[in-house]
Design goal:
It is a single chain. The chain is mostly helical. The protein has one domain. 70% of the residues lie in helices and 3% in strands. It has 14 helices and 4 strands. A two-stranded antiparallel sheet has the order 1-2. The chain has a two-stranded antiparallel sheet with strand order 3-4. β3 and β4 form a beta hairpin. The chain is globular. The N and C termini lie close together (8 Å).
């Protein structure tokens, strides 16, 4: 198989803009973790920072490793990684850490000595790769017709169902929403006609609205409980709909987060000068620490960095002009966007609490590693800037 030849030096093929954005987000993360741990006295600040730095170093190695894979190699390993992810999701149902499950209600963590690991984070980049392969393979074999578009949706659903079922069995509703967001993003750019997408979107929106309305009624809660809703999920929606109703109980975390962000006002209280107690501030509520310390300006800068990261990923996608890469980038972008939107939304009371951390900022090793590996897949697009196209059989590439 022939390959296109490029005269660019390796250093010229690295997208330093993406790397710089991630590094600046990491600085925000280190500052937030240091302030949160110092204020809460939940651990030694230096130890927490060293652990996070260690995960950043591991993630950096992971980025370098993933960058070595070109489109053809990513295509070939996609089923293997997806199978590994499914295996780990099944294994954690039997080997999950009992202490974490008792505190969070989710059976989704392994524990190896002092280190905990969430296999669903490994599944995220694997799922993105597999979904990109499925869509690309379909599009090179079939033209976009009404029947073929429904066939593509069916294929994507078949690959998604095992993941969502295992997430439900783990009682990890928040992560299930991340996979749903990735799925929706890839569907939007897959070429499926809007005559199919629009009705599906309206139905999904109606289901979401109907669920919220059911939560507000006693008879509705009984229906939702019969289909798997847990009491803590009802409490989170109650806290979202009326944060001031129970500020010392179910609404405490949200109320404290809103109070912390509001107290930061325009410029913030200053670095390491947190006064408001917010539970889990080093992880899910890291945005509240940034809001209190650096105010509206600091929050705006953080959001701008996310915007720049997403913009640069989109730009790389247009530059490389590779369909398989485009779907990979879409999955990564949707994953990061959903995390940012949901995390900031729940910190300021716009969305219910779901336990979704903030990319590159919140404390968490497996979550950070998944994000770094996903960025590595996007960086490989620029690093292997070659004009591949799929064979009509969808089994490989031709230069």
């Amino acid at each position: 198989m022939a390959r296109a030849v490029t005269n660019e030096k390796k250093g010229d093929r690295i997208d330093y803009g993406i790397i710089m954005s991630v590094m600046l987000l990491a600085l925000f993360g280190m500052a937030a973790i240091y302030m949160a741990v110092t204020a809460d006295a939940s651990a030694t600040p230096m130890r927490a920072m060293l652990m996070q730095l260690l995960w950043y170093a591991i993630g950096g190695v992971g980025i370098f490793f993933v960058m070595q894979f070109d489109a053809e190699q990513l295509w070939r390993v996609a089923p293997l990684l997806f199978g590994l992810g499914i295996f780990l999701l099944i294994a954690v149902l039997f080997l999950y850490d009992r202490n974490v499950a008792a505190s969070t209600g989710a059976r989704s963590w392994f524990k190896f000595g002092p280190v905990t690991f969430q296999p669903s984070e490994v599944m995220k980049p694997a799922y993105i790769l597999m979904l990109a392969r499925v869509v690309t393979n379909h599009n090179v074999r079939f033209k976009h017709t009404w029947g073929n578009d429904w066939r593509l949706i069916g294929e994507m659903i078949l690959w998604t169902i095992p993941v969502l079922v295992l997430m439900i069995l783990q009682k990890d509703f928040g992560t299930s929403l991340v996979f749903a967001a990735i799925f929706a993003g890839v569907v939007l750019v897959s070429g499926i006609t809007w005559k199919i997408i629009l009705p599906i979107g309206l139905v999904a929106g109606g289901i979401g609205t109907g669920t919220i309305l059911l939560v507000t009624q006693d008879w509705g809660r009984k229906i939702l409980a019969n289909v798997g809703f847990q009491e803590y999920q009802f409490k989170r929606i109650d806290a979202w709909l009326d944060p001031s109703a129970s500020t010392s109980n179910s609404s405490y975390q949200l109320w404290q987060s809103m109070k912390a962000i509001g107290s930061g006002m325009m410029t913030g209280r200053g670095f390491n000068n947190l006064k408001v107690t917010v539970p889990v501030r080093e992880s899910d509520m890291a945005f509240s620490a940034i809001g209190e310390a650096f105010g509206f300006i600091g929050c705006a800068v953080l959001i701008l960095l996310y915007f720049l990261l997403i913009y640069q990923m989109i730009r790389v996608t247009f530059d490389t002009k590779n369909e398989f890469y485009a779907y990979i980038a879409t999955g990564v972008i949707m994953m990061i966007l959903f995390h940012v939107f949901e995390n900031i939304g729940m910190n300021i009371g716009l969305l219910p609490l779901t336990g979704i951390p903030l990319p590159f900022v919140s404390q968490g090793g497996s979550f950070l590693l998944a994000n770094m590996l996903s960025v590595g897949m996007v960086l490989s697009m620029r690093y292997h800037h070659q004009s591949y196209m799929f064979s009509r059989e969808g089994e490989g590439f031709e230069a």
